[in-house]
Amino acid sequence: MVDDNYRASLEARERETLAALRERYGSPIYVYRLDRVRRAAADLKASLPDDALIYYSLKANPEVPIAAELAGAGFSAEVSSAGELTAALAAGYRADQCLYTGPGKTAEEIDNALLAGIRLFSVESVGDYRRVARTAAAHAVQSRCLVRVNPERGAAGTGLRMSGKPSQFGIELGNLDELMAVRQDSLDIVGTHVFLGTNVRTEEELIAEFAVGVEVTAVVRRRLGIVGGQANLGGGFAAPFAEPGTRPRYSALRAAVSDMLHTGLPGWREGAPRIAFESGRALVGDCGTLVCTVTDVKTSRSTTQVVLDAGTNALGGMSGLGRLMPTGVRAVPLDLELVGAPREAALVGPLCTPLDVLARSRITMVPDVDSALAVPNVGAYGLHASLLAFLSRPMPGIVVLDGDHVVSAERLEFGRGPLAEREGVR
After folding, report:
1. Which sequence positions are flagged as catalytic?
2. Which residues contact 94 (CB under 8 A, 6 or more apart)?
3. Which residues carry this modification: N6-(pyridoxal phosphate)lysine (predicted)?
4. In the chain, is it the N or the C terminus that has fewer CB atoms within a 10 Å radius of its CB?
């Protein structure tokens, strides 16, 4: 709800900046800071072995200025849709810096990627391998792939488990022989891809995850006869979401991962294989703040309802899929002069559904109508992971800052156009 430690959680200058941007551009708006992206990029590089390839996962935030900042910092791009690929290329990534991932890639998507120059894919199943290979052969181009693996186990304690259970992600070890039987010249298997979990809570758990990943990677490389190439160990790097807090610092990770690579994947120092990681949340999570406005305060039964002009259509739409944090969103008031006794309240949005809840009942101070709230740490999986189309409301504005300079001020908008018929279909 409204953070009780708000006086310490947002600097006075930042409150003034956010309030001024709300006056200038309206509400709700997302404010992204490129200086925080740069800081996060440097921190992540410092926590990983030298010469590691790091992919920025555009699913976290595909805004072009943000992706461009990371391209300039030497990151590659992980994309999983035609839209993300378009954003990556617009941000300055070359096609040979992009890894195309995701389950359910259609022939049309693969065709579009190949036409854009993409030559490296992560394949999630035997059928996925066949589709990429068949489409590459039709284009008469030589393409490459990483085999994403769904191992039988992962380390305990991750935030969101991505493997070790029935999943659309990755090929199980028992299906590798089937994959070997359908290998085609048009799609060379050049590496492996393991992603065990995301938003891992502690550094110890993250190290344990990578230890399992290295072990599984070594087994799969032997089974598939891969020499050199790439070993993508995924991510799992954490960041706070929609509440005050700071990114974890991984002081022990670099040495720990280097040691496990020496044992499990000897030759990695010489690039055989090239070690890769990927991250979205840790790179951009703390760069974004949602500024919104209280439109109504009412009492329903014994609970005060604080209604905002931004709900799950603008933030945390994944809460509808059970991803709402136990404590809910914790907003920070831009006005420090809150008065009145704390009372039981809920933070809700403007949508016509009782599911539009950002924070359930808790005891808190209640802001006044027309006052502004800031939700910090929503640079990743905020706007672009929300229910943007529901109720056809205008989308929040997007302001990108570099220091005090406004780099861009835009709004995503829905468009409508004719549905083209596919060629050769009657």
Report:
1. 352
2. 117
3. 59
4. C
